[in-house]
Design a protein that fits this description.
Length: 292
């Protein structure tokens, strides 16, 4: 199980265990409560500790931040994974097209990224998608290996510490080279899946830059400043330039069987180490072929 340790310095001496867990190790109040129930959840110098205990310089505080071993895992299904980065807490992949992120209740035998990661990760790790990509979307996607890291990464989403860029290929030649689309998004009428621009929707902001225009398409750099379902697809359709192959918000296309959307790059400041991670996934062949 993933365990964090902290050696108490002179500057930390005299504080209680709870303050060290929450301020120094950034463990939430809810996780702290769960750790108190585990026999070895919170240990001070190798012994179970109360959160009210006071520490001295040289003490070693340990907290088991890994998920509860009894948490059910998705069914393991072995599959080839394109791993861009991995450490004890984080896994970054290059996702292929046609693969869903979450296990489906409609078809529990369908291979998803969660199933593939259940087979890939050791028994003590659990796949937590930090953000999701649609089934047809390719590219960089981040998973946390435990709920503790998942919470830290989710707090960073849509900040300078967790910054994502997409590439999209829109139908038609967009006149403006740069711009933004600031339109609220909500569920379309009479639908539980499709989204639409609507005044009572959630605030949604997308920035774009036209990188090239060719073959009746525009290659775009897309930056979602918010994280609404189908945001980039809905916003591009609302601008009159739906993504090529987007059957839900535009039209099907004979040369690409999915929406032409790719999670191109990720800039991430590691919540624990402070290391800067910059990951890039090249444009997939079906999208590249449209603009060659």
């Amino acid at each position: 199980m993933r365990t964090l340790t902290l050696v108490v310095t002179d500057a930390l001496a005299g504080r209680d265990v709870k303050s060290l867990l929450q301020r120094e190790l950034r463990i939430s109040e809810s996780l702290t409560r769960r750790l108190k129930l585990r026999e070895t959840g919170i240990m001070l110098n190798g012994r179970r500790a109360f959160t009210t205990a006071r520490v001295q310089a040289g003490d070693v505080l340990a907290a088991e931040v890994g998920d509860d071993p009894n948490t059910p895992r998705p069914k393991p299904m072995a599959a080839k994974l394109d791993v861009l980065y991995e450490d004890e807490d984080i896994l970054i992949l290059n996702k292929p097209a046609g693969l869903a992120v979450h296990q489906s209740t409609r078809d529990p035998e369908e291979l998803t990224l969660e199933n593939a990661l259940a087979a890939y990760l050791p028994s003590g790790d659990y796949p937590h998608p930090v953000s999701r990509l649609d089934r047809g979307t390719t590219g960089v996607i981040t998973f946390a290996k435990n709920g503790y890291m998942h919470e830290l990464l989710r707090q960073q989403l849509h900040t300078h510490d967790f910054y994502r860029e997409y590439r999209g290929i829109a139908c038609g030649s967009m006149e403006n080279t740069t711009g933004s689309i600031d339109s609220p998004i909500g569920l379309a009428n009479n639908s539980t899946y499709k989204r639409a621009i609507r005044p009572d929707g959630a605030a949604s902001l997308t920035e774009y830059e036209a990188l090239s225009r060719k073959n009746g398409f525009t290659l775009l750099r897309l930056i979602p400043r918010t994280g609404r379902t189908h945001q980039l697809r809905v916003h591009m359709a609302s601008a009159g330039h739906p993504l090529a192959g987007d059957w839900l918000y535009g039209e099907r296309h004979p040369h690409i069987s999915r929406p032409a959307l790719h999670s191109h790059s990720l800039h991430l400041k590691h919540p624990l180490t402070g290391e800067t991670l910059d990951m890039t996934a090249p444009l997939p062949e079906d999208m590249a072929a449209l603009i060659r």
